[in-house]
């Protein structure tokens, strides 16, 4: 049996609300008030995020980005979770969380600099309550627990609107990292208001989830003494319902909670990856039938809640976003060499002042100041193909 | 700044560090202490003794036994506006937390272009000389000096222990703070009313004319004893204590070398690719024509720290320092 197909067929504990055919049913433990406006807005979010994600892929293929990390197939897992966060809540992403960024009000264009090699994300993580992307697998999960410990120390828990919690995002591969284990130990030891949101997309680059665990990932939560829930990660309503429940548990002081969003990475790990070397087309095809956007579209259409005009409007809006995204990418200017020395410390040290001054003086010595920057662009493009 | 300790009192380095923690916590309720055994036990070296009683378990946190967890959660607490101080029990145990220190602690400010400050102090008892078992006597400071975004400090006496730790806690940058464990019980005069402001600059410990000697942390006492012994033999050593290992304040050292023409650098860390290497290179770059001899290093061997019955052979000693000075001056 193929790894991913077996996983589809063996999910007795899966929390789901919206079937692949677009049939809605409530879950007794995770009630959600499902209005047409809510479903439409979730549909729109997923379409827009998918559209700029595809544009990111294309921009990499055209040499405009050094790398892109596709989220294709994980739109529901991210929009469902992201929409459960309130403005005061904090989010600690990994590096595939373009949908969470969207929900935190980070403009998609702010994600481009990381992959074009210009910056590490230009949004203000303290203001947006969305941390910078974290490339080292699992580091951010511990940082999130610490932040949540701070929320608890600040006494911002409770059942009023001002209560806060933290959600952190990681993949199935990250669950093998010591940091994720330590994070759950610390989270439990300090009753931190943190939701551990694992997007199990079945593959850690080429390693199947079987290489990470012998039990379902959500079942590991029991070992830390915290609730573990497996939700259909391709079902945006179920992801929203479970995430809202979990965040409320944390806000009222009953955290932490672990959620395993059971989903599938429809594209490569990154644009440098070649999934055809390690997985079969059958597996991808089987998951395609579970597409997170199509089932919402089916629900809206079969219940007469939206017509072709609505779907066309959303698509047009998505195309406009993609065009703006592309234009912004191509027009991004490389930073000046001062950026190298900027904000290494809260205040620049004398040593760095000296190095910066010496380097700028060296650059001034060139007749044609473009020479050195031309070399660096060639280097970045070579790196992008590696 | 006000202190709980009487002015100009004589205290051990351990007590001075404890007083610095206590004073900083009393002054700013965002200052937290966390680590293994720092609460009821008061730390394995008792540096946090009594803090739990005075500040409560929310500010003095006994943590699970996991160094990456301690450092990684401190990062999040700092983002939340706290000023965590973490204790690593022994030098050789910092490595499970090394990933968080290198990948997050050092880079959060740079990555976010200053949106996050990282006012985090990582205290590490370091160095040998206490007859301990493996992993309890290491000098890993060079690893941290190599990482941009971190500040690295090492104190050598009670007064500096107090003022440098106060200053480390006050900074908005992450600091790896090394405490020479075999000096914990040595007493010194601490003027708690003095300003801590200049405690991170290289300081002149003794003036001399024949040879400049630079050191820090546990070896400072050895170097000062060597300088006293040298004087009886008619040789005059000028001695500096670095205090801040990164960034390094080498200007006074270079100035001194221009006068003496000779430099000996003393550290118990292994010699290769170390702070002593850095000092030798920088002084050579900046004062090449003043040097009358190569820079000589007295350091640990390029081996793992040996079994403790051999540590006297491994550590810089008074005789090793004097022999190095002889070689340098007689070159």
From TrEMBL, chain A:
One GO molecular function term of this record is: magnesium ion binding
What does the record give as cofactor? thiamine diphosphate
Q: Which GO terms describe its biological process?
A: branched-chain amino acid catabolic process
Q: SUPFAM superfamilies under this entry?
A: Thiamin diphosphate-binding fold (THDP-binding)
Record flagged with keyword Repressor: no
Under the heading InterPro entries, the entry gives: Alpha-ketoacid_DH_E1_comp, DH_E1, PdhA/BkdA, THDP-binding
Family matches, as CDD domains? TPP_E1_PDC_ADC_BCADC (cd02000)
Q: Which residues form the Dehydrogenase E1 component domain?
A: 44-320
User: Which Pfam families does the protein's record reference?
Assistant: E1_dh
What does the UniProt keyword field contain? Oxidoreductase, Pyruvate, Thiamine pyrophosphate
The source's domain of life comes to Bacteria
This protein is called Pyruvate dehydrogenase (Acetyl-transferring) E1 component subunit alpha
User: Per UniProt, what is the name of the gene that codes for the protein in this document?
Assistant: pdhA
UniProtKB/TrEMBL annotation, chain B:
Q: Which residues cross the membrane?
A: none
A GO molecular function term, named singly, is: magnesium ion binding
> Which InterPro entries did the record assign?
THDP-binding, Transketo_C/PFOR_II, Transketolase-like_Pyr-bd, Transketolase_C
Cofactor field: thiamine diphosphate
Q: By what name is this protein known?
A: Alpha-ketoacid dehydrogenase subunit beta
Q: Give yes or no: UniProt keyword Cell cycle.
A: no
- Transketolase-like pyrimidine-binding domain boundaries: 11-186
Asked whether the keyword Transit peptide is assigned, the reply is no
Query: Which keywords does this Swiss-Prot/TrEMBL entry list?
Result: Oxidoreductase, Thiamine pyrophosphate
Source organism (scientific name): Nakamurella antarctica
């Amino acid at each position: 049996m193929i790894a991913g197909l077996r996983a589809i067929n063996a999910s007795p504990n899966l929390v789901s609300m919206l079937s692949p055919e677009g049939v809605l049913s409530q879950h007794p433990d995770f009630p959600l008030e499902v209005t047409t406006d809510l479903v439409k807005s979730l549909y729109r979010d997923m379409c827009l995020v998918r559209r700029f994600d595809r544009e990111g892929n294309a921009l990499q293929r055209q040499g405009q980005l050094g790398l892109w990390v596709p989220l294709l197939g994980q739109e529901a897992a991210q929009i469902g979770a992201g929409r459960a966060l309130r403005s005061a809540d904090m989010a600690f992403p990994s590096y595939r969380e373009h949908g969470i960024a969207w929900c935190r009000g980070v403009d998609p264009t702010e994600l481009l600099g990381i992959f074009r090699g210009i910056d590490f994300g230009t949004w203000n993580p303290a203001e947006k309550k969305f941390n910078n992307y974290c490339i080292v697998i699992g580091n951010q999960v511990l940082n999130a627990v610490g932040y949540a410990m701070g929320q608890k120390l600040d006494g911002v828990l409770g059942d009023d609107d001002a209560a806060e919690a933290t959600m952190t995002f990681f993949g199935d591969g990250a669950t093998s990292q010591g940091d994720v284990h330590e994070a759950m130990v610390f989270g439990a030891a300090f009753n931190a208001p943190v939701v551990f949101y694992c997007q199990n997309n079945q593959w850690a680059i080429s390693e199947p989830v079987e290489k990470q665990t012998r039990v379902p990932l959500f079942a590991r939560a029991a070992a830390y003494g915290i609730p573990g829930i497996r939700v259909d990660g391709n079902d945006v309503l179920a992801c929203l319902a479970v995430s809202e429940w979990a965040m409320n548990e944390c806000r009222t002081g009953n955290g932490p909670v672990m959620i395993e969003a059971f989903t599938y990475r429809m594209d490569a790990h990154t644009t440098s990856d070649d999934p055809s070397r390690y997985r079969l087309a059958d597996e991808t095809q089987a998951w395609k039938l579970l597409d997170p956007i199509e089932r919402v579209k089916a629900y809206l259409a079969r219940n007469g809640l939206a017509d072709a005009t609505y779907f066309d409007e959303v698509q047009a809006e998505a195309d406009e976003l993609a065009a703006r995204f592309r234009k912004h990418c191509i027009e991004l200017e490389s930073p000046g060499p001062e950026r190298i020395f900027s904000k290494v410390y809260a205040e620049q040290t004398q040593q760095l002042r000296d190095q910066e001054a010496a380097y700028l003086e060296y650059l001034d010595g060139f007749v044609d100041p473009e020479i050195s920057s031309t070399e660096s662009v060639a280097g970045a493009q070579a790196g992008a193909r590696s | 700044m006000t202190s709980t300790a009487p002015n100009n009192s004589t205290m051990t380095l351990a007590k001075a560090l404890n007083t610095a923690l206590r004073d900083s916590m009393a002054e700013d309720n965002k200052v937290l202490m966390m680590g293994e055994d720092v609460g009821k036990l008061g730390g394995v070296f008792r540096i946090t003794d009594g803090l739990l009683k005075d500040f409560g378990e929310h500010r003095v946190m006994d943590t699970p036994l996991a160094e990456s967890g301690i450092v990684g959660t401190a990062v999040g607490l700092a983002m939340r506006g706290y000023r965590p101080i973490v204790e690593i029990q022994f030098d050789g145990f910092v490595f499970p937390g090394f990933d968080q220190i290198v990948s997050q602690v050092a880079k959060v400010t740079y990555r976010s272009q200053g949106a996050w400050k990282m006012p985090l102090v990582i205290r590490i008892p370091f160095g040998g000389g206490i007859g301990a078992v493996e992993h309890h006597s290491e000098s890993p400071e060079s690893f941290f000096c190599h990482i941009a975004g971190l500040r690295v400090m090492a104190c050598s006496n009670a007064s500096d222990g107090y003022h440098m730790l106060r200053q480390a806690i006050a900074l908005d940058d992450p600091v790896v703070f090394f405490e020479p464990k075999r000096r914990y019980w040595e007493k010194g005069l601490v003027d708690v009313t003095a300003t801590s402001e200049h405690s991170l600059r290289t300081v002149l410990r003794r003036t001399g004319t024949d040879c400049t000697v630079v050191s820090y942390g546990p070896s400072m006492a050895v170097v000062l004893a060597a300088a006293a012994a040298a004087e009886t033999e008619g040789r005059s050593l000028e001695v500096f204590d670095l205090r801040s290992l990164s960034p390094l304040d080498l200007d006074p050292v270079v100035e001194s070398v221009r006068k003496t023409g000779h430099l000996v650098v003393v550290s118990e860390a292994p010699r290769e690719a170390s702070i002593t290497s850095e000092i030798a290179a920088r002084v050579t770059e900046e004062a090449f024509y003043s040097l009358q001899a190569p820079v000589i290093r007295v350091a640990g061997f390029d081996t793992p720290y040996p079994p403790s019955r051999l540590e006297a052979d491994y550590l810089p000693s008074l005789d090793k320092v004097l022999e190095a000075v002889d070689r340098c001056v007689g070159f």
